[in-house]
Amino acid sequence: MKGRFALRLVSLTTRDKFVKDLLNHLPEIGKMMKKLYESRTAELPDKFLHFEISAIHKDYQRMGICGRMADWTLERARKDASEGGSLNGCGGVVSEATGLFSQRLLMKRGFQCIGEVAYADYVDPTTGLPVFQHTDPHPSVKLLLLRFDHH
After folding, report:
1. Which one is predicted more confidently, 106 or 20?
2. Cβ of 78: how many Cβ atoms within 10 Å?
3. pLDDT tens for residues 116-129?
4. Do residues 12 and 47 touch, judged by C-beta distance below 8 A?
5. Using CA of residue 9, residue 22, residue 97, residue 84, what is the dihedral sign?
6. Any residues with CB less than 8 A from the CB of 94 and at least 6 apart, and which?
7. What is the average pLDDT score of the chain?
8. 19-28, 46-55, 61-70: which has the minimum mean pLDDT?
9. Which of 27, 50, 77, 112 sits in a 20 to 30 Å window from 93, CA-based?
């Protein structure tokens, strides 16, 4: 794994395009995300940066790499948004944090939870069984929002 230990994927999008694209993804994940976003889309900025994926190779976890990637991305996004760059008009950052550690990392950086779906509560309507099993220590997916303050 020489030289391959971390990944951060982000994209700039609009609220309408994001919701439409999200619902066209994998059926079960799309349904859970729909539940997560129901009645919350109005809270999203009109234009936002979407933190899509963060992954750290297991041999490099717990070394602060993901936090440094988040800090680097947020610092550049704020600067670009405030200086009229490609993120001009960007109202903030949105992330669906599926893991407890990602949730803690982002909330420590000022993200607010605007929606949550517990994995145990998300059941298959035909079987009544949880769709996502063996999720410990990750209890839920959280919709997190960090608004940019444009002064």
Report:
1. 106
2. 19
3. 988 888 777 788 88
4. yes
5. positive
6. 18, 44, 45, 48, 49, 50, 51, 143, 144, 145
7. 80
8. 19-28
9. 27
